Amino acid sequence: MRTLLATAATISLAVCGGAAAAYGAEAVPPRGQPGYPAIAWGACEDAGLQSRKAECGFLTVPMDYAAPAGKKIKLAVSRIRHSVPEDKYQGVMLINPGGPGASGLALSALGENVPKKAGAAYDWIGFDPRGVGSSQPKLSCDSTYQGYNRPAYVPSTRALEQAWLARARKYAAACAKNGGALLDHLRTVDTVRDIESLRTALGAEQINFYGYSYGTYIGQVYATQYPERVRRMVLDGVVNPGRVWYDSNLDQDVAFDRNIKIYFRWLAEHDNVYHLGATGEKVEKLFYAEQATLARKPAGGVIGPDELTDVFLQAGYYVFGWDSVATAFSSWVNHKDPEPLRKLFDANNPQQKGSDNGYAIYLGVQCTDNQWPTSWEKWRTDNWRVHKIAPFETWGNAWYNAPCLTWAGKAGTPVRVDGAKVPPILLISETLDAATPFSGSLEVRKRFPRSALIEGVGGTTHAGSLFGNPCMDNSIADYLATGELPKRVKANRADKRCPAMKPADPSAAKANHAEGAESLSRLELQKLIAAR
């Protein structure tokens, strides 16, 4: 799935325990088992983690679990300990923010966001997956690849198509050179084995897990392979395990086109603020007209049609940044000021050394979890077919994933996800989530017969739990505190329905904004989590 790297929100794997007196058959999490001291805990470099007295360290694991005596790699891990008495302790909570490729090290602070202080009973464990962030080695291939002056996404000419194919091949070759053997060991099953190693190192018999977006797929695979090790799981923005990954990207294209039309209508409703058109159709027409203009002459010399698409893509993911995108576009359309658009683009597309780490790992996982079509003709046919009904993001998404055509890592076979033996888990999704369409949540609900699904009715936000929706967040708190889930209904639908996340009122947002608005990418949302 295409992400806003470092894609938005959040994470979490959780482990084990719970006091036997308080939670019946659930055992108190054991400590001091063999392997527990494997992480040498010390001070964290991150200022936010330091302020919370978090501990940081590295877990050494095999690069190839089939050859455990071979080359080793290191996973960066953080921990914020529980603050309740020992008899109320509920074990460790592992967190994954999604991506693939997003850093989760700072997200051990996520427990603070759980209402009713329900997070205080857990040790919150953040970690950077293999190849990511502070883990060693860290994969980077070409830090300028997602920058300015790219060919137009829509390959309206043979030259544009060939230019993008050449770029994709070059990036895949750079990753092959820099990644070497690591590229054969970046599949979801490798991360799942790392989680199992982390469980052992923490001395936990079971884990609790909080996964956002792609992190929900990690959780599904872990639960399938180690059902007896699962205590509680919250999966927000649920991946459809039957669509990994080529098909899921085509699903996204249609969903994002729907969501951007919803956003255009919202802009029209607030035409008195943004002055972009009084109807959704007029705003949409303006957007595509500006794309054509920017193709001839980029705004500020750098914001072309690709960059405009990338900026607006944020609005397809989250309502949090709707005003930011609108303000930036309005500044360009009405005042010919390109700087707000450039700031939004730069926030999601940094180009300093190593900044493509998230994207490189995204490809490392997606390209090898399952074999992508090896024929460009199939890609071309499928994407032109979808583009006809969903022009907003289809070709941008296709080129984002195009390095999979020639990726050096060996592709595997996806695990058949089966939650029949898994304890009760909590699923969360908004109805119109474009990154992980709601149909995936219903599919996972079927595969995990003891699960319960909470729906943000009519919402377009992706993986937004613990961001201030009391209906959802209080249910999460109840589940983490007692294991209580909404009662499961017999129909093929959500078990609990909540109001969706709402965008900020534009007038109020203006009062709180300095000039130009900050991007709310997953990276920014992660920073917000850590700052709370």
Describe the structure.
- The protein is of the alpha/beta class.
- The protein has 18 helices and 10 strands.
- The protein has helices at residues 20-23, 47-51, 158-179, 188-201, 214-225, 246-269, 271-274, 280-296, 305-317, 322-335, 339-348, 357-369, 376-389, 394-401, 438-447, 470-482, 506-512, 522-531, and strands at 13-15, 55-62, 72-80, 91-96, 122-127, 207-212, 230-236, 426-430, 452-457, 496-499.
- Strands 1, 2, 3, 4, 5, 6, 7, 8, 9 and 10 form a 10-stranded mixed beta sheet that branches.
- Helix 4 packs across helix 5 (214-225) and helix 8 runs antiparallel to helix 9.
- The longest helix is centred in the middle third of the chain and has 24 residues, at 246-269.
Would you list the SSEs in sequence order as H and E? Answer: EHHEEEEHHEHEHHHHHHHHHEHEHEHH
Named at the architecture level, the CATH assignment of the largest domain is 3-Layer(aba) Sandwich
Fraction of residues in β-strands: 5-15%
- Give the total of domains: 2
Helical coverage, percent range = 40-55%
Provide mean pLDDT, rounded. 90
Radius of gyration: 22 Å
CATH topology of the largest domain: Rossmann fold
Entry keywords:
10 strands; alpha/beta; 2 domains; 532 residues; ten-stranded mixed sheet; 40% helix; Rossmann fold; disordered C terminus
Compact description:
The protein is 40% helix and 11% strand.
Secondary-structure map with pairings?
Elements: E1 13-15, H1 20-23, H2 47-51, E2 55-62, E3 72-80, E4 91-96, E5 122-127, H3 158-179, H4 188-201, E6 207-212, H5 214-225, E7 230-236, H6 246-269, H7 271-274, H8 280-296, H9 305-317, H10 322-335, H11 339-348, H12 357-369, H13 376-389, H14 394-401, E8 426-430, H15 438-447, E9 452-457, H16 470-482, E10 496-499, H17 506-512, H18 522-531
Parallel strand pairs: 4-5, 4-6, 6-7, 7-8, 8-9, 9-10
Antiparallel strand pairs: 1-6, 2-3, 3-5
